[in-house]
Sequence to fold (209 residues):
Amino acid sequence: MKILLFIVLLCFIVRNTHQQGNVCNVTRDIIFLIDGSNSITDADFRQQKHFVANMIDNFKIGKDFVRVGIVVFSSTIGDIVHLQPSKSKDVLKSLANNLRHPKKGTNTALGIKRVRQMMREEGRSFASKTMIVVTDGLSASPFRTYLMTSLAKAEGIIVIAIGVGNPTLKDELKIIASNGEKMFQVTRFQDLELIKNVVGNSICQRKYV
Fold:
């Protein structure tokens, strides 16, 4: 009976620790690539920013653990939060919540290209690399998006793709994501909160393929 109680208590502690974000103590450079196109309302863009800030809460931030960058894309590149210099969790969350909404087109390929550049120039050689793409619409150039995604994967970047709303996004999300387990879809931006934990689990896997 005591052994059973111990196991139950241990499971509770592990689950609770994960929910607090303390389990995600992997060594990883993570860049969020978020859609700032004009098809997204101001309210939905805020939801997207809150999602990123809440995701940051799941990570153990530090020079030997997780570092976070953010790139906003539309027709051009918008605000950028660089991987370097290293920032505290509170600073990262504040920067995420203060990103500006460009309200232009959907040049996903350009955004991926910028993330690749940031990983090359600012990424740590000993850290694994992850890009999280959040978008609500098809890219302006699907072929270039495919090309940039293929190059990112060839450079060792794990790609998580999150689509919001548009059901026709599914085929493009399959192309962007590293595999089927790295692809997610929600109906509304406010529903991003519902997948926060499962996305966090996917990011924080130590065996990461």
Q: What stands out?
A: The mean pLDDT is 88. The longest strand covers residues 28-35.
